């Protein structure tokens, strides 16, 4: 159990509790099968809300570190195979040695843009200029809805690249996806409103909504994206549907055109809202870029949301939402009470990065690069794990969904790989109630060559086969 000193030093939130247990397990201090304190006991000891401990335990279970055994309590997953740490003499592959930045953060992580290909010099140049030109009046509170030139630059980008008709006054700049969801629901939702989410769906979206919406329901996803027939049959009365139409997260399928129209018609009839999460819509490879669902929305029922985490860098923490015209006044009024505006400097830097055209050039390059890196990763997977995985769709997104052809050991494999600093996600953790599929969700955007991908996977190949043979 964490000590009182640890509690004091860590200003306990769910993240600190999560990290504490994860570290204890990875360091071997907590062993597979060990019991951990119950949520009630730990919350009492740490003097934090039960929800805080619950949140940490849920993530630890989702990642496969913990298993809950009902009345028998919670344990460290007995099936967790703790392999030798990545620093063991045979572990680090030579090919990865010249990648210090990424190496420090673990490989194959989901949703990280290619850090080696980002035009950092340009970014720094603009940053310097912007910092030096800050005027005294800009040192006062930043505008709540965002820096005006950035709102305009985002509106033009959405019009040109995502096929929208967006006015600058419709853009509300936020710190990203979760801030978007929180703000939309705070402004537009009533406490009794039903909210729908895809199943499987983005792990952190699901976790956030579970905590902030009392009436959350799930809609299955198939080859054509979210199942709108199901939605209409069981949840036609819902007020919000959060969807990822361009590349479903995590399955990466694209919502079919008939379903797009069906979903829009539902929202129009019910006067409900569709929240479109277009997190990586730019990255479609074999066909042309797919226009956003919002571009078909003739009745202004779609609240479009986007982020610069995938196109620039996650650490920037800048995202945005496009307010339907009829809601702008409500967003402005409540926004003034709930939000404080983002720091001005990064917004100014980004605005210039967009208006000078660097952003567009960068995305264009990344489309080509990601396509190459994706195929390197697929080749390496087949090379190191012949016959083990099946990949259904290969034309979009920033990750590969490698379904296990047999078995259900995705949690165990992901935990094993994490021991070797390969941070993939077990697909089954993203399901709530729909029949689970098993596999790994693998980021490939920072893979620089087939050899590097092969070397990374070679770290874990023998141990993975051994695990599956048990
Ligand atoms: C499905 C999905 N939506 C949104 C985001 C972006 O989140 P944020 O804007 O908070 O970085 C991600 C990032 O991984 C994602 O996977």
UniProtKB/TrEMBL annotation:
SMART domains: HTH_GNTR. Gene3D superfamilies: Type I PLP-dependent aspartate aminotransferase-like (Major domain), Winged helix-like DNA-binding domain superfamily/Winged helix DNA-binding domain. PANTHER family: HTH-TYPE TRANSCRIPTIONAL REGULATORY PROTEIN GABR. InterPro entries: Aminotransferase_I/II_large, HTH_trans_reg/aminotransferase, PyrdxlP-dep_Trfase, PyrdxlP-dep_Trfase_major, Tscrpt_reg_HTH_GntR, WH-like_DNA-bd_sf, WH_DNA-bd_sf. In the C-terminal section; belongs to the class-I pyridoxal-phosphate-dependent aminotransferase family. Transmembrane segments: none annotated. Residues 11-79 form the HTH gntR-type domain. It holds the Pfam family Aminotran_1_2. This is PLP-dependent aminotransferase family protein. GO terms for molecular function: DNA binding; DNA-binding transcription factor activity; pyridoxal phosphate binding; transaminase activity. The keyword Ribonucleoprotein does not apply. Keywords: Aminotransferase, DNA-binding, Pyridoxal phosphate, Transcription, Transcription regulation, Transferase.
